[in-house]
């Protein structure tokens, strides 16, 4: 059955209706699919049926007639080339009937049958479905059973019904003789068989290479399809049947609106893409990129539901989140170098430090020097790397030029008959390196040492602000495990990177300022490794460009990070760590400085934090001073800030109650309230925006330091020494002595170390040696502790739980023994520090600034210090403290006794004042 155009269809229909027997026509194919000329051979066929298109579509001229024909014999068109126009008019006389009644030879028929069966078997094997296979099998059986005479007829049938090239079919149609037809059919079948064999082979090999990936792909597709189905199933369960379950409401909510929780496939895909983009942004050939690529591949291979998948994914997230220099450079150069290139950088930095901190002049000066050095080095490094990149560009241009020249030379060498002298051996010039890594661009590591609350941490923040870099703080207090700094290996459950890498990630840039807080509180070697040793690697500029974090397991470049350490004391810091740092001492503030800090920084900060303004609350100088002296006793300002915060909060409550009572919004200013005040009401309260000194007891409670003041008394055997506590704060410590019945021994208590014990014994020995000169005994030979009655001396330093050591209490203990044995008292406004020798000399001691400031805070008015410490007082003690304090410098114990007890109070037999100079 073939479609024919409407015109031909109408004609044929007429013909059929007019004819008595079914008419015979010639069906002639086109010479090729695209050609407009006819083929020379066609088929004579009887018309079986002509079908008109349905009436509803009749007007549609595109709709063809369907013509069913019964083929009878081959026909030939001698004038096929120009038969086209005649055909359109349906010519009557055009064909010849060649005679094709000869018998084929048995041999040719057998070959034909073999070829046909082979092809049909192959087609049956490769058939995509059952019915096709049956079709080929039936044909094959027909071929097998056909007689030699009928073989050409079967060849005609096979060629017409198989999927064979058009040109081959036309060629076959042109054959008339039986043998010729069989031979041509055999050739076509052999060709078809080999085509199908080759294409099967190709398909198989492609299939093998794809099957692994496809298998994974198909499985994943199936998995997600199953998950989707399960979700749909879950949604279709009636809400009532789930209402008893705890998460019913939640699920109901998610059904109602298409929540982002449903979109997990999409989110998952986006996250993976994000990781991918970050990996691609990493520097080529860098360790981190290699590692990331390796892990990425592993991730793709592991099933998404496995534990391993989560571990690798977590690792990749960390690895890609660290700001690696190459990926970060583009963003950070623009901002951090911008700040450094600014001509006013130093003056701006100075202004920043001044805006954040009061006083600390020497420290600020040192910090400005430090910042200047950092700036110079960074700019220098940037210039060098710029030059290096120019060098690289130059080198690349040269290499390109050289390659071009070489190519030209080669062609000329080829044409000039292989002249050896022209063959140039070029040695490539070494490629200059880009200075991107391993280049430390910072100054020394700063270590701020001082008592709590003296602004160490906030100075670090100011430095970061001045450099326009992110600030991160890592608290090392109580860090016992090396893993906290270096991370834990990935084999540990729930492992992660150390706090250095975490800080880098949070900073988001490879050049932040990282403050290592409380380095003195880090613990040293134990069975968890040595965190202090790990810190050494972090801080060593020679090593930290390839810091090793156990979790990431690739070197991390810390050379761009500015590290600043803080500590309360130097005593517990390991020597190698101390060696890497430049120590800057912050020794505490005088009351005057505290007043300034409170007024300019702490009060405004607390007002803002508690939602008030200066209009709502003002605290007078004397009130602030009362808070500082009676409620705090510290080197820093942290307790002061807390106390001010408590006062501000108290007033904030008062203000809110007041506003509620008069019915106004608490946001308005106090000055506005007076205008809008509501008429008198019984609920109305009063509000006073000034805090007086006497109100403090109601707000802050009973002063903490009043009792201590009272306890400082003038007493036999009691002397006040000056100390520095473990946190670096200076203060006053009483040295108490009493006589108890005994046998002339010395008893020392109060958690004393060896050195302080020895200096106690030394002081007593000196007093015993000079007991006669001091009018304690009547002869040189008498022991003051055995005469008239045998007694023991007990020396105690209060705060027994706090460990004390050092030689600096020497003169205080000596004075205490003298007071105990003579009965004379040292006034309670005097405090002293100094080491004694057996000869009665007074030696220099440390911590003078802290001690003097501590004495000043404790309202001591006279301090006795060793002569050798005059320079410390001159350099370190603020002028306003020196003005308010009488400082006496002493060289010997005799001078100390005179300064402590008063001139002439302690008698001295003058005949012994001659000391041997031998
Ligand atoms: N000179 C100052 N000027 C202004 N504010 C200051 C000054 N010194 C300290 N402060 C303020 O005191 C508070 C405590 O300071 P910070 O936290 O820096 O103390 P720290 O020395 O780091 O203490 P710690 O040793 O306990 O860590 C901060 O709010 C800080 O702003």
UniProtKB/TrEMBL annotation:
Catalytic residues identified in the record: 808, 851
A GO molecular-function annotation: ATP binding
GO biological process, one term: protein catabolic process
Reaction(s) catalysed (UniProt annotation): Hydrolysis of proteins in presence of ATP
All copies of domain Lon proteolytic, residue ranges: 713-903
Entry EC no(s): 3.4.21.-
CDD domains assigned to the protein according to its UniProt record, in alphabetical order: RecA-like_Lon
InterPro entries: AAA+_ATPase, ATPase_AAA_core, Lon_bac/euk-typ, Lon_lid, Lon_proteolytic, Lon_Prtase, Lon_prtase_N, P-loop_NTPase
Keyword Signal part of the UniProt annotation: yes
UniProt keyword list: ATP-binding, Hydrolase, Nucleotide-binding, Protease, Serine protease, Signal
Region listing for Disordered, in residue ranges: 235-271, 394-421
Domain Lon N-terminal residue range list: 1-193
Descriptive protein name: Lon protease homolog
Organism annotation: Daedalea quercina L-15889
């Amino acid at each position: 059955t073939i479609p024919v155009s409407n015109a031909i269809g109408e004609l044929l229909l007429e013909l059929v209706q007019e004819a008595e027997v079914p008419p015979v026509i010639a069906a002639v194919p086109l010479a090729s699919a695209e050609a407009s000329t006819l083929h020379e051979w066609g088929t004579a066929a009887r018309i079986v049926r002509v079908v008109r298109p349905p009436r509803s579509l009749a007007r549609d001229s595109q709709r063809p007639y369907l013509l069913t024909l019964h083929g009878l014999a081959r026909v030939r068109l001698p004038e096929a080339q120009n038969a086209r126009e005649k055909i359109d008019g349906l010519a009557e006389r055009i064909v010849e009937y060649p005679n094709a009644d000869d018998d084929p030879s048995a041999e040719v028929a057998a070959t034909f049958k073999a070829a046909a069966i082979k092809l049909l078997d192959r087609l049956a094997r490769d058939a995509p479905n059952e019915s096709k296979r049956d079709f080929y099998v039936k044909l094959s059986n027909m071929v097998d059973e056909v007689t030699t005479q009928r073989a050409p007829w079967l060849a005609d049938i096979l060629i017409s019904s198989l999927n064979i090239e058009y040109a081959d079919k036309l060629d076959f149609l042109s054959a008339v003789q039986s043998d010729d037809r069989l031979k041509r059919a055999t050739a076509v079948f052999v060709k078809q068989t080999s085509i199908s064999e080759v294409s099967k082979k190709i398909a198989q090999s492609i299939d093998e290479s794809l099957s692994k990936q496809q298998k994974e792909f198909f499985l994943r597709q199936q998995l997600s399809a199953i998950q989707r189905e399960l979700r749909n199933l879950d949604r279709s369960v009636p809400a009532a049947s789930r209402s008893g379950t705890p998460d019913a409401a939640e699920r109901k909510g998610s059904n109602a609106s298409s929540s982002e929780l449903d979109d997990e496939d999409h989110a998952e895909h986006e996250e993976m893409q994000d990781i991918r983009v970050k990996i691609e942004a990493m520097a080529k050939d860098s360790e981190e990129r290699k590692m990331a690529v390796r892990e990425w591949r592993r991730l793709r291979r592991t099933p998404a539901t496995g534990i391993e998948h989560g571990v690798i994914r977590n690792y990749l997230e960390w690895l890609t989140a660290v700001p690696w220099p190459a990926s970060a450079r583009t963003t950070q150069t623009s901002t951090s170098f911008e700040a450094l290139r600014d001509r006013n950088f130093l003056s701006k930095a100075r202004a920043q430090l001044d805006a954040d901190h009061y006083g600390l002049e020497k420290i600020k000066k040192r910090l400005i020097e430090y910042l200047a050095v950092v700036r110079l080095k960074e700019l220098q490094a940037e210039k060098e790397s710029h030059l290096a990149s120019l060098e690289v560009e130059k080198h690349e241009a040269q290499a390109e030029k050289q390659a071009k020249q070489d190519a030209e030379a080669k062609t000329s060498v080829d044409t000039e008959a292989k002249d050896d002298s022209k063959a140039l051996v070029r040695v490539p010039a070494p490629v200059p390196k880009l200075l991107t890594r391993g280049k430390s661009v910072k100054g020394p590591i700063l270590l701020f040492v001082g008592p709590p609350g003296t602004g160490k941490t906030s100075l670090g923040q100011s430095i970061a602000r001045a450099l326009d870099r992110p600030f991160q703080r890592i608290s090392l207090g109580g860090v016992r495990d090396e893993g906290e700094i270096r991370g834990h290996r990935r084999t540990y459950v729930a492992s992660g990177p150390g706090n250095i890498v975490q800080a880098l990630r949070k900073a988001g840039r490879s050049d932040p300022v990282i403050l290592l807080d409380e380095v003195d509180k880090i613990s040293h070697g134990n069975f968890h490794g040595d965190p202090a040793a790990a810190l050494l690697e972090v801080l060593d500029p020679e090593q930290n460009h390839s810091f090793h974090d156990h979790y990431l397991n690739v070197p991390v470049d810390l050379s761009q990070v500015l590290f600043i350490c803080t500590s309360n004391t130097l005593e517990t810091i390991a020597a190698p760590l101390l060696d890497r740092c430049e120590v800057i001492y912050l020794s505490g503030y005088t009351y005057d400085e505290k007043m300034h800090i409170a007024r300019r920084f702490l009060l405004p900060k607390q007002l803002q934090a508690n939602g008030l303004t200066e209009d709502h609350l003002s605290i007078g100088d004397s009130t602030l001073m009362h808070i500082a002296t009676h409620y705090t006793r510290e080197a820093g300002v942290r307790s002061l800030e807390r106390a001010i915060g408590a006062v501000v909060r108290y007033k904030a409550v008062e203000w809110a109650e007041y506003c509620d009572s008069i019915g106004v919004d608490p946001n308005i200013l106090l000055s506005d309230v007076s205008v809008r005040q509501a008429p008198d009401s019984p609920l109305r309260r009063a509000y006073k925006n000034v805090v007086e000194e006497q109100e403090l007891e109601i707000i802050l409670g009973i002063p903490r330091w009043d009792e201590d003041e009272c306890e400082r008394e003038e007493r036999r055997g009691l002397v006040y020494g000056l100390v520095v506590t473990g946190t670096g704060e200076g203060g006053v410590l009483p040295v108490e002595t009493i006589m108890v019945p005994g046998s002339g021994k010395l008893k020392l208590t109060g958690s004393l170390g060896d050195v302080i014990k020895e200096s106690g014994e030394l002081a007593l020995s000196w007093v015993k040696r000079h007991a006669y000169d001091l009018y304690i005994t009547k002869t040189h030979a008498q022991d003051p502790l055995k005469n008239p009655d045998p007694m023991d001396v007990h020396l105690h330093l209060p705060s027994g739980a706090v460990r004390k050591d050092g030689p600096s209490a020497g003169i205080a203990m000596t004075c205490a023994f003298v007071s105990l044995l003579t009965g004379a008292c040292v006034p309670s406004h005097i405090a002293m520090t100094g080491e004694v020798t057996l000869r009665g000399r007074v030696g220099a001691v440390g911590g003078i600034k802290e001690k003097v400031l501590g004495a000043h805070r404790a309202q001591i008015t006279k301090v006795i210090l060793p002569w050798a410490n005059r320079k410390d007082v001159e350099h370190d003690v603020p002028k306003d403290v020196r003005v308010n304090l009488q400082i006496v410098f002493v060289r010997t114990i005799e001078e100390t006794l005179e300064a402590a007890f008063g001139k002439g109070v302690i008698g001295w037999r003058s005949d012994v004042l001659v000391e041997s100079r031998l």
